[in-house]
UniProtKB/TrEMBL annotation:
It holds the Pfam family GntR. Keywords: DNA-binding, Transcription, Transcription regulation. This is FadR/GntR family transcriptional regulator. SMART domains: FCD (SM00895), HTH_GNTR (SM00345). The keyword rRNA-binding does not apply. Residues 12-80 form the HTH gntR-type domain. PROSITE patterns: HTH_GNTR. It comes from the Bacteria. PANTHER family: REGULATORY PROTEIN GNTR HTH, TRANSCRIPTIONAL REGULATOR, GNTR FAMILY. SUPFAM superfamilies: GntR ligand-binding domain-like (SSF48008), Winged helix' DNA-binding domain (SSF46785).
Amino acid sequence: MSTNNHQKFKSRTLADQVSQQLQSEILNHQLTIGDRLPTEPKLMARFNVGRSTIREAVKVLANLGLIDVRQGKGTTVINDTLPRQAVATTLKNAPAIDAYEARKALEIGIVNLACLNRNATDLKAMNYYLEIRAAAANRYSLDAYRHADEQFHEAIAKATHNPVVKDLYDDFWQSFKNRFGDSFTETNLYEEQSTIHQNILTAIKQRDPHQAVDWVEKNINLLEQTTTTND
C-alpha cells in the first residue's frame, strides 16, 4: 500500500472516531437539540487532530441529519435520533435497480472498511456463520439458512468497528428485507453463493479490498438477477 493511501485511511479513521464520539454525545443527550458544537479550534484541541479531520467528521454528522452547519453562525444540533424512517420510506418507493445499487454501494464501503479493521474474533464469527449456513442448507432449513446468511453479513458490518456504519447497515438491511421479502436468500442459489461467500471471507482475511469488493458485487448481481426473474 502506498504512503498516500495509508495516510487517507488513517485520516478517515480519525474522522470516524471523532464523528462517532460526537454522535454518541448527541444520541445520549449530552448535546441536546439547539446546542452548538464547540468551534473548530476547540474540537481540534480536544481530539488532538487537524482541521480537515474535524471538518470531515462534521460532514458525517450533517449527512446523518444530526446537525446543521451554517457559515458564520456555527454548527447546531437539530436532531437526536438517526433517520431510520427516512431509509424505510425511500426504499419502499424506490425502483428495484436503485435499491440494489444502494445496497451494492453500502456493502462495498463496508467490506473495504472490514478489510482494514477486522480482527481474529471477527474472522472467527464470519467463519462460524458460514458453517451454520452450510449446515442449514444441507438440512433444507430455509429459515435457519436465511438467518445465518444475515448474521454473516452483520458480522462483516461489525468488523468495520464503526458503530455509525453498523447502525446504517442495520437500518438499510431491515428496510431492504421489508421491500423484497426473502427472495434474495433462496437455497437454490446455495452452491454458487457458497463459493462467493467463502471468497468474500478469504479476501477480508487477507486484507484484500479489491478481491472483497469484486466478490460482493458478484453476490449482489446474482441476487438482483434472481429477484428480477422472480418478478
